[in-house]
Amino acid sequence: MRYQQRGTKVSVDHVIIHPTEEQLRRYVAEAIEKVNDNCKTRCVKMPLVKEVFQSKKGRMEANGGTPSTLPGATSRIGIAWWTDAIERKHVRIVADRTVLENRYVPSIFGFGAAGQSDFWCVYHDKGKLEYKKMVLYCVCGNKGNPEDLEWDGNHCRECREIEKYEQDTGFIPAVGKTHGRRKKGHKGS
Questions:
Q1: pLDDT at 183
Q2: Domains in the chain: how many in total?
Q3: Is 102 helix (H, G, I), strand (E, B) or coil?
Q4: For residue range 35-82, what is the model confidence (pLDDT) as tens digits?
Q5: Helices H, strands E: what count in the chain?
Q6: Phi, psi dihedral angles at 161 (to 5 degrees)
Q7: In what order do the strands lie in the sheet with 133-137?
Q8: Is residue 121 part of a domain?
Q9: Looking at 59, 78, 112, which one is the last position of a domain?
Q10: What is the pLDDT of residue 60?
Q11: How far is CA 24 from the centre of its chain?
Q12: Cβ of 139: how many Cβ atoms within 10 Å?
């Protein structure tokens, strides 16, 4: 789990692929403990982690509440999840202790997160927004939305198939694309 500390702000940002409910509870409890550490007020509580396992995608956010005097600190946690084409959950846990200058508690997933897809909240750094749609770029050159690429969090379906073929046969094609490596003559799609 990655931790960062900036002045009075402590933050946690971690992506887990295909966790069990017990593993996810442990990661969330760890994140909450880290951001609530030694705080007496405005501490965030454990969210309903089981919701992650009841739907293919979604997100939830919780906070310790707005401080009665401003500026004041509060803890926040966010959990976003998305299920890939091979039915694995990708879960991002984001938590922090932040100082608020006004009564508005912004989304922990970042500015404008309310208008973004759940995939974006998990992998905000993997794609680009083009005409208000998330477009992913695989290392092989394929691009598209997560569903069309059958994205697994790192690569498209075509890359996974080629990698499996290489593993099963030991044969690496001389022309074409292989998992994350461009071969001579490949133009992508």
A1: 41
A2: 2
A3: coil
A4: 998 888 999 999 999 999 999 999 999 999 888 888 888 899 999 999
A5: 4, 8
A6: -65, -40
A7: 127-130, 133-137, 143-144
A8: no
A9: 112
A10: 95
A11: 13
A12: 15
| Structural Rg of the chain based on CA atoms | 20
Q: Can you list the pairs that 121-127 forms with residues at least 24 positions away whose Cβ atoms lie under 8 Å? A: 121/59, 121/78, 121/80, 121/92, 122/15, 122/80, 122/81, 122/82, 122/90, 122/91, 122/92, 123/15, 123/82, 123/90, 123/92, 123/153, 126/153
Query: What's the domain range around 151?
Result: 126-189
- For residue 45 the two structure tokens come to 């509580």
Query: What's the 3-state SS for 62-91?
Result: EECCCCCCCCEEEEEEEEEEEECCCCCEEE
Q: 66 has which bridge partners?
A: none
pTM of the model as a whole: 0.72
**Cα–Cα distance between 56 and 98 in angstroms, integer?**
30
Q: Is the pLDDT of residue 180 over 60?
A: no
Place of tokens 């500015």: 111
Give me the residue label for tokens 């208008």.
115
Please give the structure tokens belonging to residue 57.
């995608």
| 8 A C-beta contact, residue 183 and residue 175 | yes
168 with 135, same domain: the answer is yes
Q: Which pair of structure tokens corresponds to residue 113?
A: 């997160």
End-to-end CA distance of the chain: 35
Query: What gap in Å lies between CA 157 and CA 178, rounded to an integer?
Result: 12
